[in-house]
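Let us practice reading a record.
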Amino acid sequence: MLNPVLERFINKLDHWDQHVVDNIYLIEETGFISSDGLLQFSDEDMLRYFTTNDHFDMTIYISGHKFKISSTLYSLLENKYQLDFHVSLYKFVIY
């Protein structure tokens, strides 16, 4: 479950302004990198994630805004969708 602040932010990214999220895309950025919708994680949290088995809140930045997600959700996203947040940059887009 996302925290309420992150949910409000996601609703602001709703390009069709329908307040119903039909499609969420994570697009791997390989060329020109725009900060609009860019996902970034705290370096300290990434180090902790890969060196411990702790369950903790990770700091995520979306378009420069700071949010928290659980390390369990991070693991689920990486494993389920074969993402490499620690290697590649992704852009968060909602349509």
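A brief commentary: Strands lie at 24-29, 38-41, 57-62, 65-70, 89-94.
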